[in-house]
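Weekly puzzle thread! Below is a chain. First person to post its structure in token form gets bragging rights.
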Amino acid sequence: QALKVTSYKLSDVNPLENEFTEDVGLDSVAMRAIKRRALKLWYRWYCLQPIHKKQISFVSDSRVTISGNFEFIYQELKRRNTDFKISFYLKPSIKTKKSWKEVRTLAKALATSRYVILDDFYPLVYPLHIRENADLIQVWHAVGAFKTFGYSRLGMPGGPKVQSLNHRNYTKALVSSHNIADKYAEGFGIAPDKIQPLGIPRTDIFFDEPKKQAIRERLAQDLPFIKGKKVILFAPTFRGNGQQSAYYPFEMLNFRAIYEALHEDYVFLLKIHPFVQNKPTLPYEYSDFYYDVSDYREINDLLLVADQLITDYSSVCFEYALLNRPMIFFAPDLADYMQSRSFYFNYFDFIPGSLAENTGELINQLQHPQVDQAKLDGFVNFFFDDLDGKSTARFVDALENNFEDPNAAELENNDGLAISEDGKIIPDWGKKAK
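Winning reply:
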């Protein structure tokens, strides 16, 4: 006799069990504070060294692999065969232990890199004074502007303090549209002219048909249970004030009613926010319908195989809107959520899909999917300036050109004299005129 065991894991290799094994320990609060001070001191020391004009450092405390925006930017840099020197400084969590050598290496990178690129909250960098002729660029992991964040939440539960330094030292920040530039400037506490509406690199996937097909084929192998079924992706955001208190009220869903109504034709994938501490308790008899894919890092891949999306207040709706498919906003706790977390836009006018306030409405809408094409088109056109799949290319162009306006006049003429945009000569200090 033989026992066949099949694994539905989305990745056969866990980086934490390999090259990052020595880092899986956590630093205490006190040790993290000591290392923050040490990093500041080393940073000031390394600021005495020159900036390396071709150095790009990718920094994150929420991933150990090159994925999301980092992946698209890195691949484009490699495709162009640029002469940039690229380094990565990645950890799976803010609490993950950094050795003293790593702290010092990071301090040097932050002080001497021409570009430091972030994709998430990174508290180590916020107390630092960014050097002239260097850029700290936030490419952010989310798209669009939905629920308020950062300094837009001053005075609200879980909002920042007025004296907080978080986010304020970004010299550049990417957004998907000029229509939301003011929201990000407010949220990050930076000047509006530091916002770059070049598009979000990771959204390029939705315009790359060969890559989309390759991802679907890979997921068909990794998730064999989706074959022959309609796929529902459940991707809500967390409740609570932040990572430490994050949870999701799974009791709002009647899992049994959903199973009985849909299990013959559908599968139900749960992609729960990584901050959420509690997990749903699903009876074994539902195991042929409910599948937890929360450990899969790149949600955009899962969107490609989803026939319908269920979300609530998550920014995932922006990416899914690019697929022109039905989405349902399941929000039984909308009134309570609005009291603790406001939105940049009126929720009812904003959502590009139907609203379900209980499980019965959710089931009915899943069984009868609809798309309000006019509203969806207006939503996409407002939150995306360019629907061309070239956001990564525009960003790398900006890196190569030092974020100078490509339409501006050349800075120097043949005589080496600096020229202003209106054609006037800008004399150098103390330089003799020819």
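Puzzle host: Confirmed. Bonus trivia for everyone else. The chain has 13 helices and 14 strands.
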